[in-house]
Amino acid sequence: MALKFYMTPGSCSTGIHILLETLELPFEAWIVNIPAGDHLRPEYLKINPRGTIPTLVLDDGSALTDFKSIALWLAQTYPRAKLLPEDPALAAQAVDLLEFALIQLHGEGFTRIFTSERYISSGGAKPGQQLKDDVTSHGREIVEQAFGVLEKRLPAEGYAVGPTFSIADAALFYNEFWAEKTGIPLPPRVLAHYQRVRARPVVRQVLAEEGYRT
After folding, report:
1. Which of these, 94, 99, 96, lies nearest to 160 by C-alpha position?
2. Which residues form the GST C-terminal domain (predicted)?
3. What is the pLDDT of residues 144-164, one digit of tens each?
4. How many Å apart are CA 177 and CA 180, to the nearest integer?
């Protein structure tokens, strides 16, 4: 039984897609059309009751249903790829940066930008455009502040925690990619990191497969 990867092109699942291709693992790709409501269909909720992406179904039929668990499973199952540094301190830094990307950039920032209606209590009425704009603006502020924090943490050269590409880089990349698509400026070191990751042949391949020009 091959790995089954449930993904949405251009979403956070792009980071996992990059990790899978980096490891050169065979897998079946299943596209989840979120605007069409695929993530809420009974057949998908049976696999992932949370109704989220990404999801990775393993050889034994069990499912990993969030970015962090999938990334850690891949790094620990295939240690020769060094997606998680061997040094405990660097490994901890990689996980810390991964969580910062998932929680602060994505969860607190971009979620407000992409799904502003979630943050508006309208009492059943359709939320006004001004309210949506305010939530979106707040999201952009959170993202810009988070990138400011990363600017102080990322090295001038190499990847997030050293010379080797890691799970942290995959998580940071999809947020940097979103920033480019939404016109949010990246500070110098963050921009340099984004450009280094995007220049990787595997990343260019993944973006092309997901329908983006590289």
Report:
1. 94
2. 87-214
3. 999 999 999 999 999 999 999
4. 5
The pTM (predicted TM-score) of the whole model is 0.94
Burial class (CB in 10 A: 0-12, 13-18, 19+), 40: exposed
How long a stretch of residues is the chain? 214
Q: Is 55 helix (H, G, I), strand (E, B) or coil?
A: strand
Furthest C-alpha separation in the chain:
54
Q: Which amino acid is residue 155, in one-letter code?
A: P
| CA distance linking residue 40 with residue 201, whole number of Å | 34
3-state SS class at 194: helix
The single-letter code of the amino acid at 75 is: A
Query: Helical H runs in 24-85?
Result: 42-47, 67-77
**For helices 67-77 and 88-99, what crossing angle results, to 10°?**
160
Query: Hey, what are 43's tokens?
Result: 């057949």
